[in-house]
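User: Quick sanity check before I run a bigger batch. Here is a single chain. Can you write out its predicted 3D structure?
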Amino acid sequence: MCGIATNERAVSKVIALPNPTKGSIKVLNYVAENSMKSLIQAHETELGALSVNPDGTLIASASQRGTVIKIFSADGGETLQTLRRGSGNAIICDLVFHPTLHIIACTSNKTSIHMFEIKAAIQKCIELR
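Assistant: Done. Predicted structure follows.
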């Protein structure tokens, strides 16, 4: 499980992957020839899913419970938005940022697709820069 910024001219060249500490994300941000590492304590339980938006500015994660999706700033690790997928546990199969719209989609073993508007996360990310 990992996420990577995919735009050719991404704002940040970010790779996000699970950290050995339960529920945390290791963030590698490559700037020129150097890399900066940071940690985000995302969830109380193990990570269930992870994604980076194409520009490398946002990181989304879900825990193994699959009830909540959190959006973080890739730069500072701040929680920008929390989204509720449902009240029952679910295995999150995938988290996908839309390449141009302010939307994230989530699929799970509950045979459903959830789509969320993330304008609040985008706005907070801009304010933090």
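The chain is about 10% helix and 50% strand.

User: Great, the batch can go ahead then.
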